[in-house]
Design a protein that fits this description.
Layout lengths: L2 E6 L12 H10 L4 E10 L27 E7 L9 H16 L3 E5 L1 H14 L4 E4 L3 H4 L3 H13 L2 E4 L2 H11 L6 E3 L16 H5 L7 E6 L8 H14 L3 E6 L5 H10 L6 E5 L3 H10 L2 E4 L8 H8 L4 E4 L13 E4 L4 H12 L5 H6 L5 H17 L3
Amino acid sequence: MTRIAVVTPILPVPDDKTRGRFIYETAQALSRHATVRVFLQQTQYPSIPGLRPRSPAPPPVGPDFTLPGIDVQAGTYPALPVLSRLTNGWACGRSLLPKLRAFAPDIVIGYWVYPEGAGALQAARQLHCPIVIGALGTDIHVRSGLSARLTGNTLREADAVITVSDAMTRFTVQHYQVPGQKVHTIVNGFNTTVFYPRPRGPLRALHGLNDQHRLMVYVGRLIEAKGLRELIDAFERLAQRDPGVRLTLIGEGALREELQATAQQRGLSDKVTLTGGLLPQQVAEWMSNAELVVLPSWSEGYPNVLVEALACGCPVVATRVGGIPEIINDSNGVLVPAKNTAALEQGLEQALHHTWNRSAISKAMTRTWDDVATETLAVCEQVLANRP
């Protein structure tokens, strides 16, 4: 069987169970077709005050970290905020090299272009091993200056590039001058055993919701770029006219305390719930019990949370960015411009008053993680076949 090393900085961890779940699902599905080991490469910052990032990620997990269904090896590499940006790829590759050498892969897949993808590329080249870089969204869109140059270098030097939407493929070719024949679009799937329509019932009762309450759910990282400040503002305006609306925010992140305080200051504590990170089965329950799922991001690749919401039969209100217009249409949701509170408020109200065919929404979603794995493996086999 083909031996595939998957290198990534993001996987579901105890402090953030939704983080990198699409990579976890892809790796798990790939493991049914190949021998796969996932190398979780994490930045290790000094414990000295002032030498830690302003928006810290969850603390690094130790070498004993495990996830069901995949062979994972966690490690760290040293970094400093801003100061080590130029050398982070090198440091990641240096840490990764002996682990890859011990595994002896036929091919490497590096998810997240810079620095971890660059580190994977550096290590793979030293082992004379081909490499595929997987771009996820923010890692190519929210880049400028030095970061953009390092990102472009990594994409161009890879043997192949995988993106998660047609929009990202076009952007990769046009913005980073990557040859079109090297770039492959493989959109995300969903776990059919978890995300499917479920009957409303105990969950709504547990949270004091009755048939008159209209529930909106957000799932993802609680950070500024997800448009959560605009969401709170839009929800507040909506709640002033419609006291029956409710909002649940699922996830962890730097804005959690601010969002909690804002809801309290604006008298929305009884209408806004922050659950923290939840397991997929719990997320699916919330989606099935919600009137809609909302994702007001400033930038996205192909957000899996929307695919999962639709699989549960739940319509969506989301921003018209990245690959989102490839997922959402008039039959399953409403698209609004990013960073526009008034448009978001209008979109939420429109979706709440629309009669959706939830059964048809769910039945239209058929793509699984096995489909993703099959297409990813095909790219790897093509690279291996063309290898000098």
